[in-house]
């Protein structure tokens, strides 16, 4: 916002909806207006957009922060069929998890910030971001 970017042109996104609510509260504590994407905000609603990676699908923002790209969140173990159970389904599930991150990251038109805590997702290393 110091660069003149309107809050509505900024999105902060995390994998799950519940942490998105915590992000919204943290922004509020910092004195920043924000609105949850799940509330389907009108374009003229003031505030940084906050939501899950899924909620960003089909949207575009000048700046996007994709947070929480940690090893435990991506790939999500319960979303991926074990290799030994079904190698083909495992590969498909892994691609779906990669695509989820891809969609979140490609919502940024001008600036993208990807972050994690602890150990980053293996996809971060694959993309040679870390």
From TrEMBL:
Taxonomically, which superkingdom? Bacteria
Q: Where is the UvrD-like helicase C-terminal domain?
A: 47-117
What UniProt keywords apply to this chain's record, in alphabetical order? ATP-binding, Exonuclease, Helicase, Hydrolase, Nuclease, Nucleotide-binding
Record has Chloroplast as a keyword: no
Pfam family name, one: UvrD_C
What terms describe the molecular function in GO for this protein?
A: exonuclease activity
**Which InterPro entries does this one have?**
DNA_helicase_UvrD-like_C, DNA_helicase_UvrD/REP, P-loop_NTPase
Can you name this protein? 3'-5' exonuclease
Q: Which organism is it from?
A: Streptomonospora wellingtoniae
């Amino acid at each position: 916002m110091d660069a003149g970017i309107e809050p509505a042109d900024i999105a902060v996104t995390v994998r799950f909806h519940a942490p998105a609510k915590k992000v919204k509260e943290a922004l509020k504590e910092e004195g920043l207006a924000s609105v949850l994407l799940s509330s389907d905000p009108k374009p003229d609603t003031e505030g940084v957009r906050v939501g899950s990676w899924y909620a960003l699908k089909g949207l575009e923002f000048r700046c996007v922060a994709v947070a929480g790209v940690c090893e435990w969140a991506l790939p999500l173990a319960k979303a991926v069929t074990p290799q030994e159970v079904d190698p083909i389904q495992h590969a498909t599930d892994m691609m779906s998890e990669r695509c989820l991150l891809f969609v979140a990251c490609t919502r940024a038109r001008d600036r993208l910030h990807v972050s994690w805590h602890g150990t980053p997702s293996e996809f971060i290393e694959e993309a040679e971001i870390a």
